[in-house]
Design brief:
The protein has helices at 3-23, 30-52, 58-87. α2 packs antiparallel against α3 (58-87). It is an all-alpha fold.
Length: 94
């Protein structure tokens, strides 16, 4: 089995496992999990910066830039959604 087939197998299994775990989360826990996923995406941004600036070859740089863009969108969207959900629990101002 080639290394690409092994990596693809790991990716598919991780995707399925992640989907199954997130699908079982009750709705009242989504906000804390969103905050946790923002922290993980912050780590992804650091890794993407290292991959994009590594200078090994054009393909790894392109994947690093793509990962950087996607992780940045994920962090920004996660903060916006978390902020909006937390606004629902505020007491109304009189």
């Amino acid at each position: 089995m080639s290394i690409w087939m092994a990596l693809l197998t790991i990716f598919v299994l991780a995707t399925l496992l992640g989907f199954l775990v997130i699908a079982k989360v009750p709705p009242n826990l989504h906000t804390p999990l969103m905050s946790g996923s923002n922290a993980i995406s912050g780590i992804t941004i650091v890794g993407a910066l290292l991959a994009a600036g590594g200078g090994r070859d054009w393909f790894s740089q392109a994947l690093g830039i793509l990962a950087l863009i996607m992780a940045t969108v994920n962090v920004a969207g996660g903060f916006l959604v978390t902020h909006r959900m937390l606004r629902l629990f505020r007491k109304p101002r009189s």
